[in-house]
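This section describes the prediction task in plain terms. A model, or a person checking by hand, is given the sequence of a single protein chain and must write out its three-dimensional structure as a string of tokens. No templates, partner chains or ligands are provided. The sample shown here is typical of the held-out split.
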Amino acid sequence: MPRTGTTFCVSFSNPPPNGLGYSLLLLAAGNGAYPPWTLNPPGVCATANLFLLPQAILTATGDPALFCLSIPANPALVGQPVVLQGASLQVGVCFRMTDAIGGEIQ
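The expected answer:
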């Protein structure tokens, strides 16, 4: 769980031969979309669910993709819900989506 005053890291794998080693992390404050929005090719490799309206998008290269965020030591952030979802660029120039994870800043 993300905690104020710390660095929060999340990673996911996108191994070759299909993964090109370029990934996105979609972030949003608040609760996830329920029901999620359906995404269809060609932007995604296969029909996928989008569980958030991204307020920030981070990029990373390599496998596994590693994203780290510094969370300010601000007590007002405690209890704030957050949602994260990943996307990995695949051969054929489409994205494969991960499931989303959600939680609260501690």
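For orientation: The chain has no helices and eight strands.
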